[in-house]
Amino acid sequence: MTMQGNSVPASIWSNVEGIAYGGDYNPEQWPVNVRLEDLELMKEAGVTFLSVGIFSWALLEPSEGQYNFGWLDEVMDNLAAHGIKVALATATAAPPAWLVRRHPEILPVTADGSVLGPGSRRHYTPSSAVYRRYASGITRVIAERYKNHPALALWHVDNELGCHVSEFYGAEDAAAFRAWLERRYGSIDALNSAWGTAFWSQNYGSFEEILPPGVAPSTLNPGQQLDFQRFNSWALMDYYRELVAVLREVTPGIPATTNLMASSATKALDYFDWAKDLDVIANDHYLVAGDPERHIELAFSADLTRGIAGGDPWILMEHSTSAVNWQPRNQPKLPGEMLRNSLAHVARGADAVMFFQWRQSFAGSEKFHSAMVPHGGRDTRVWREVVGLGAALKRLAPVRGSRVESRVAIVFDYEAWWASEIDSKPSEDVRYLDLLRAFHRSLFLRGVSVDMVHPSAPLEAYDLVLVCTLYAVSDADASNIAAAASAGATVLVTYFSGIVDQNDHVRLGGYPGAFRDLLGIRVEEFHPLSAGSQLKLSDGGVSSIWSEHVHLAGAEAVQTFAEYPLEGVPSLTRHTAGSGTAWYLATFPDHDGIEALVDRLLAESGVAPAAAADAGVELVRRRADSGGSYLFAINHTRSHAAVEAVGIDLLTGSAFAGTVEAGSVAVIAED
Ligand code: GAL
Question: pTM here?
Answer without folding.
Answer: 0.97
